[in-house]
Known about the structure:
Blueprint: E1 3-7, H1 14-28, E2 31-38, H2 43-46, E3 47-48, E4 53-54, H3 58-76, E5 86-92, H4 97-107, E6 112-116, H5 122-127, H6 130-137, E7 142-145, E8 156-161, H7 166-180, E9 183-190, H8 192-197, H9 199-209, E10 214-220, H10 227-238, E11 242-247, H11 253-258, H12 263-270, E12 274-278
Parallel strand pairs: 1-2, 1-6, 2-5, 6-7, 8-9, 8-11, 9-10, 11-12
Antiparallel strand pairs: 3-4, 7-12
Helix pairs in contact: 4-6
Amino acid sequence: MGKILVTTDFSGHSRKGIRFAFQYAQQTQSKVVLLHVLNLFDPEIAIDSRTATPQLRWEEALQLKTNQLKKYIHVVFPSGIPKVDYEIVCLKLERSLAATIIHYTKMEAIEMVFCSENGVSIYKTLLGSLPEALLQHCPVPLCIVPNRYRTTPIHSLCYLTDMAHIDDEMAQITSLQRRLEVRVDVLFFAYEMELKARFTQLHETAKSYENNTVRFQYIQLIPQTPFKELLHRLLHPLKPSLVVLFRTPNRSLLSRMLFPSKTSALVLENHLPLLVIPKP
């Protein structure tokens, strides 16, 4: 059984990530680690309510937050917690929120991290956007869940590819597809000249992977049409449960279109969870 990690700061936004992580765990028989990171700016830790004086009581604070998290999970699932193996973990902040999460991910062999997009908690105000920070350095797949997402069973994936390492990436997509038992739509965007030049190669690739549950689509980019608008037109009828991207240090055309405007734009505007996987 693999382990997945979902972060929470007790905000309303973080409930979306928790619910989606539990849904994923149900369909893949994964164990969920529900993680909260304590920070110096939490008034319950830094201030003694009786004397209003600064203090640090880490051991007491860890236990306090653990107990709160045990209650909070029932708030997230008022109709009953799904039948998923899970554990609650509270950690002290080390250097930064993202660094603390990444260190724990490496130490505990976490296979996927889930977080909610752009909460309004003190974390975002003082430490920056957690999803954006994790995108840069997370060593495992990162799933970002938009705050307007409504959790339903995961029934399909939409994989956006630059075709640069299609065989390696399709191996991971196929593995994920089998675990979730879903269909996959593969989308490749390019300008007309490239699509014509690579016509034979692209169609041979599609032919080698397509079946009843996998479909390839090659979409021509239109200079006058913003990429996000074009993508929205395609995602709306597909209605995927999860959009998948691979992150690479040497950014492709697709990466240059998505990441400078913050990947969160794709998630928020289409209200779809986004899974970002490090390149092999």
